[in-house]
Amino acid sequence: MSPHVGLEVPAGHHGVEAPMAGAVIAVLVARGARVALGETLFVISAMKMETEITAPCSGVVEQLQPLAEADTVGAGQVVAVVVPEEKNGAVAAVSDANTWLPLLEEARTLQGLAQERLAPTSYEPGVVRQRSRGKLTCRERIDLLLDTGSFREIGSLAGFASYDEYGAINDFTPANHVGGSGTIAGRPAIVCADDFTSRGGHADGAIGAKSAHLDRLSIELACPSIRLLDGSSGGGSVAAMVPQQKVEGDSKAKESSGAIKAGRRAWPAAVARFCRVTSAVRCTRNNSRRCRWSTYCLAAWWASVRRRQCSDTFPSW
Fold it and tell me: Are the C-beta atoms of residues 71 and 45 closer than 8 Å to each other?
C-alpha cells in the first residue's frame, strides 16, 4: 500500500488518479504548472511495465503529492489535482488516445473481418467453393452443434493482419481454426473446427497449439472436447471411411480399403456434429446393427455411448 494518502478533490476540480498500484519512476510536473490534456504527469512501474499517468484535462496543477522516485502509489490514489481551463464555458473533453479504447476498437475490427469472411454473403473463393460442394462453414457447423447463442470463441484475434501507411487495418486473414466454449442441451463443452476455406485447413504449428490449448481447457473444466472434421490427417477422408447410405436403414457399402486408423479414431468426433447429445433414443426399427448406420440412428446411438463414457469422467455431464 502507498504511504501517501490521496488528495481531496474540491468541487469543479479534476483529480489525477493512479490507474494501478506501482512504484514511481518519474515525476514530470510541478505544482502551479500549466498542463495540456493528455500530458504525462507521472510514470509508474507495475508488473514490469511502465504506465503513464496523464492529465485528464487542460489546466493548472493546484495540488501535487510529494512523490519521489521509488515511492509507491495505490490503485485509484489521487496524486494530483488540476484546475480545468474553460474554453467558451466548456471543459475540454478527455482524449481516448492514451487509453485502451483504440486497441479495443482494433480488436473489434479484426473480429468483424473474421466474421464477414464466412458470412452468407461472402465472395471469398474458399467460401464459395465450400458452399458449391453443399458444405457448411466451420462457424455454421459449430452453431448447429451448440445451443443457440452459447458459443464463446477463444483466440478470435489469431491470424495475419496487414496495415496501410497510416497504421489502419487494411486486411485480415484469420487463423484457419475456430474454437471456444459453449453448451449442448445446457451442458458445457469445448468445441473446435478446422476452416477448410483457408489453406485447406492445413494443420500448421499455430493451429496445433490452439487445438492443444482447447484440449487442456476441457480437462481443466472437466467437460468434453469435440472437434468437427472435414477430413483427417494423413490424407484420409472421413467421408470415405463412412459407409455410403442409399436407403435409410439399409446399406451394403463397406468402408474404404484405404481407411486409416487416424480417421477411424476421428469418426466419433465427426458424428458429434449430427447430434445435440440429448437423451438416448432407441431405434424404432429393432435397434439392429444395420439400422444404426443410418445418420439419425447413428447419431442417437453415439449420443448414448458418449453419455455413458462421460458420466464418470465429466461430472457436469
Answer: no
Of the residues 175, 210, 228, which one is the last residue of a structural domain?
228
Task: Scan for cell 469418426, then name that residue.
Answer: 267
Rounded to whole angstroms, the maximal C-alpha distance in the chain is 91
Contact 138, 267 (CB under 8 A): no
Q: And the C-alpha cell for 259?
A: 481407411
pLDDT in tens, the chain (317 residues): 455 577 888 888 999 999 888 999 999 999 999 998 888 999 999 878 888 999 988 999 999 999 989 899 998 899 999 999 865 444 455 556 667 788 888 999 999 999 999 888 888 888 898 888 888 999 999 999 999 999 999 988 888 889 988 888 988 888 888 999 999 999 999 999 988 888 765 665 556 778 888 999 999 999 999 988 875 444 445 454 444 544 444 445 444 444 444 444 444 454 444 443 333 333 334 444 333 333 444 455 555 555 555 555 555 55
Domain shared by 50 and 157, yes or no: no
Question: Could you list the residue range(s) of the whole structural domain that residue 81 is in?
Answer: 14-86
| Domains held by the chain: number | 2
Are residues 72 and 172 part of one domain? no
Residue where a domain stops, chosen among 179, 198, 228 = 228
